[in-house]
């Protein structure tokens, strides 16, 4: 039995589930077919939504800390399956195995976070202007949540959303990316095992998965029975999803494109910046929404930094992500490769100079795998192509002289996910994270833009979508808030001093 078949088996994915279907799943590693999944017929979506609605009526009454016990068990299952799911992520998405494992760890972490959160779903008590009155807030479960994820984090982003939704009292319907459904299924199976261990208190239909393409996602997006749609992917996808959900007054969490930059000032520790640039721009082959795409470097340190960077880029180990020591795996598919080539050409037309990389790699060994040499392109200014997100290891370098101008350039892109500054000058650092600094949802100091921990709220502004998921108070989006004014007096005074009868 192949290593993959054994991993499927240990994850509870039966041969009948991954063979004989119409949806072919290919590995970006070498183009080999990994599975043929059975697609969920669109005609079944209504039934799935009905089951979710019925599950909600029961689940909302289970005390939140008891719901927390379910995600605790899920975290245990993920821990146990970490090697297998990490391996499936790696072979299906092309991430190096270290990052595949890290992604599963992110799922474990959010389960533990959600477990704690299950005892802290609390609102405020507010003083009333009226005697003998008290105002308080409660957070109540919201209803079925649709979770639509992208190929690049096929396990963790489902876990981020589902762990919180479940402790908040909401059933989940998961639509993994059709480019990486296997990792999603493996993560979902771990949840099913947790549900089985949890027992009768978990209603039937609490967690469901649909396998297939965009029409399934559209059916979920359009359903007024789904009060919250959490969608991760491109800005183009968000532009389609956002207005549809809004038109039926649904809530949404949109996690869309980024165009993340690093400002490197003369006061930076350049060796640290170098390491952060490498992980940020080259890690995950530049296919994180938080990947580093723009380097805004002061003229005084540019040459030194670029010299170090070019040296490091020239020795990057590109190859099979499952082989230990590899740093850069393949792009997800040929379209991603073509998009990178197109952006490099556009950059050149707009005055850019390719300093290194951009060419296809390992074509002889992997004719159906799209490996590239990560590219660095120096730009004379922030032209149209630099303002566009290309999901590939393509780093633009921009030079600045004046710090205020660096911040202006930094913010002058349509996206607003993550950002960072490398500097040991407290004036620069504090300015960068101040109201007049970075306009992104995440602004880091002396660490790169990618690889966030789950404890903070994750997300960004502008075309990134404006929403937050994962840590901090992101849980509130999975609940509805009620404000309760309680009168324990024998009078009935009106607010604002109004007298009536
Ligand atoms: C994504 O790329 O969609 O901060 C999510 C990070 C990861 C999550 C990225 N923790 O890079």
Put the structure in a nutshell.
The chain is α/β, with parallel strands linked by helices.
What does this structure look like?
38% of the residues lie in helices and 20% in strands. By secondary structure, the protein is an alpha/beta fold. It has two domains: 2-256 and 465-482, Aldehyde Dehydrogenase, Chain A, domain 1; 260-445, Aldehyde Dehydrogenase, Chain A, domain 2, CATH 3.40.309. The strands form seven sheets. Strands 12-15-16-11-10-18-19 form a seven-stranded mixed beta sheet, sandwiched between helices. Strand 3 (125-127) and strand 4 (133-141) form a beta hairpin. Helix 6 (97-117) runs parallel beside helix 7. The longest helix has 21 residues, at 97-117. It is globular and about 75 Å long. The structure holds 2-aminohexanedioic acid. 2-aminohexanedioic acid is lined by residues 106, 150, 152-153, 157, 232, 288-290, 450-452.
The percent range for helix content is 25-40%
CATH class categorisation of the largest domain: Alpha Beta
The main β sheet shows up as:
7 strands, mixed
The proportion of strand residues reads 15-25%
Q: Provide mean pLDDT, rounded.
A: 97
| Terminal Cα span | 82 Å
The whole-angstrom Rg is 24 Å
CATH superfamily membership of the largest domain, which one? Aldehyde Dehydrogenase, Chain A, domain 1
Q: At the third CATH level, what is the topology name of the largest domain?
A: Aldehyde Dehydrogenase, Chain A, domain 1
Strand order of the largest sheet: 12-15-16-11-10-18-19
CATH architecture of the largest domain: 3-Layer(aba) Sandwich
Shape type = globular
- Uncertain segments are none
Q: Which molecules other than protein and nucleic acid are bound? A: 2-aminohexanedioic acid
Query: How many separate helices?
Result: 15
Q: How many strands?
A: 23
GO molecular function, one term: aldehyde dehydrogenase (NAD+) activity
InterPro entries: Ald_DH/histidinol_DH (IPR016161), Ald_DH_C (IPR016163), Ald_DH_CS_GLU (IPR029510), Ald_DH_N (IPR016162), Aldehyde_DH_dom (IPR015590), ALDH7A1-like (IPR044638)
Subunit structure: Homotetramer.
Protein name: aldehyde dehydrogenase (NAD(+))
């Amino acid at each position: 039995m192949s290593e993959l078949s054994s991993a499927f088996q240990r994850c509870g994915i039966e041969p009948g589930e991954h063979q004989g279907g119409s949806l072919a799943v290919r590995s970006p590693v070498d183009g080999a077919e990994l599975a043929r999944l059975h697609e969920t017929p669109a005609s079944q979506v209504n039934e799935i939504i009905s089951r979710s609605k019925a599950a909600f009526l029961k689940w909302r009454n289970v005390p939140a800390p008891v719901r927390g016990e379910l995600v605790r068990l899920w975290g245990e299952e993920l821990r146990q399956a970490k090697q297998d799911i990490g391996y499936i992520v790696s072979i299906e998405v092309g991430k190096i195995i270290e990052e595949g494992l890290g992604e599963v760890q992110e799922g474990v972490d959010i389960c533990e976070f959600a477990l704690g959160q299950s005892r802290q779903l609390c609102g405020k008590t507010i003083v009333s202007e009226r005697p003998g009155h008290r105002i308080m807030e409660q957070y109540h479960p919201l209803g079925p949540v649709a979770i639509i994820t992208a190929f690049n984090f096929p396990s963790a982003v489902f876990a981020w959303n589902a762990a919180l939704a479940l402790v908040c009292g909401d059933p989940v319907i998961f639509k993994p990316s059709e480019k990486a459904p296997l990792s999603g299924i493996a993560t979902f199976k771990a949840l099913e095992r947790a549900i089985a261990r949890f027992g009768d208190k978990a209603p039937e239909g609490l967690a469901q998965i649909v396998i297939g393409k965009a029409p399934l996602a559209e059916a979920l997006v359009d359903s007024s029975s789904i009060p919250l749609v959490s969608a991760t992917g491109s800005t183009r996808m968000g532009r389609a999803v956002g207005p549809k959900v809004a038109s039926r007054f649904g809530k949404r969490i949109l996690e869309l494109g980024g165009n993340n930059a690093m400002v490197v000032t003369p006061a930076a520790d350049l060796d640290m910046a170098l390491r952060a640039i490498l992980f940020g721009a080259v890690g995950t082959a530049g296919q994180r929404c938080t990947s580093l795409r723009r380097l805004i470097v002061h003229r005084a340190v540019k040459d030194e930094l670029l010299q170090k960077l070019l040296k490091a880029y020239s020795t990057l180990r590109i190859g099979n992500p499952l082989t230990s020591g590899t740093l850069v795996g393949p792009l997800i598919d040929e379209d991603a490769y073509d998009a990178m080539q197109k952006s490099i050409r556009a950059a050149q037309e707009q005055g850019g100079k390719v300093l290194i990389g951009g060419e296809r790699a390992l074509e002889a060994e992997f004719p159906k795998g799209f490996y590239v040499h990560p590219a660095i392109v120096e730009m004379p200014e922030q032209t149209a192509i630099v303002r566009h997100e290309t999901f590939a290891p393509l780093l633009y370098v921009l030079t600045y002289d004046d710090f205020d101008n660096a911040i202006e350039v930094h913010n002058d892109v349509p996206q607003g996910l993550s950002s960072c500054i490398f500097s040991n000058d407290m004036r620069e650092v504090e300015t960068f994270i101040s109201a007049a600094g970075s306009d992104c949802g995440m602004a880091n100091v002396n660490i790169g833009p990618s690889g966030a921990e789950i404890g903070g709220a994750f997300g960004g502004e502008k075309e990134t979508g404006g929403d937050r998921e994962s840590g901090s108070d992101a849980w509130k989006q999975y609940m509805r808030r009620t404000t309760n004014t309680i009168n324990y007096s024998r009078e009935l005074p009106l607010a604002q001093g109004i007298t009536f009868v």
